[in-house]
Amino acid sequence: MYKKATTHHKIPLTIGITGHRYLREEEQDILRNAVRKIFQLLHKRYPNSPLQLFSPLADGADRLVAEVALAENVQLLVPLPMSQELYEIDFKTATSKKEFEALLEQATEVFELSLLEGNTPENIRQYGARSKQYALVGAYIARHSHILLALWDGIPLGKSGGTSEVVQFKLTGQMKDLPKDYKPQHNEPLDTADTGPVFHVMTSRKSGKPLDTVGNIRILLPNNEQKIDLEEWDSSDLEAINRFNQDVEAL
Questions:
Q1: What is the pTM of this model?
Q2: Which of 11, 17, 193, 215 could staple 30 via S-S, CB 3.0–4.6 A?
Q3: How confident is the model at residue 91 (pLDDT cuts 50, 70, 90)?
């Protein structure tokens, strides 16, 4: 006798997050509403597909999006760039650590990424080696997500593992601080590039000037095409997954 299919039998639609660590307090409700709009649209457009969010739960955008995701029935998956003990060194206050641990407890899955070659538990306490682990987790999230959310002001700073680098990795597959063999090589003319769309939610930096366009959403695509209207965006790949999941449930 066959059992009725559950979400465990379905292919999830995966969303990743990258973004500023330091957000303006007065803009956070606007950002939450924008992120909520995205999750609700995905639920509506792909109703048979469970949604999952990859977030390493750093301060700022990572946690804001994770909170909205949990409220919108999106599973939380947490890839850690290093051991939890070493990672928590970056959370400077007791409040930050409590926020991190509270979200961690609500995650469906938590896992630690391996250290890059040359990195050790000792040297990743220093910025250079540590930044490469952040580059790794950013690239991992981009590579394993159907859609990347970027809460970002759109200004590339070239910081190792920073938001602009993770966005570029999603769009182009290139990131300077990762081994060349990290991304699968495509050798045939018809091979599909391991890239995808970035949902850019305009976000001010706390250290910069506030933006008039905070909360605006635009879609960045690997072919450099931009679609400003979220409602106009579609994906044949995600539609195919949703049809599969619909059949799984029906059968």
A1: 0.89
A2: 215
A3: very high
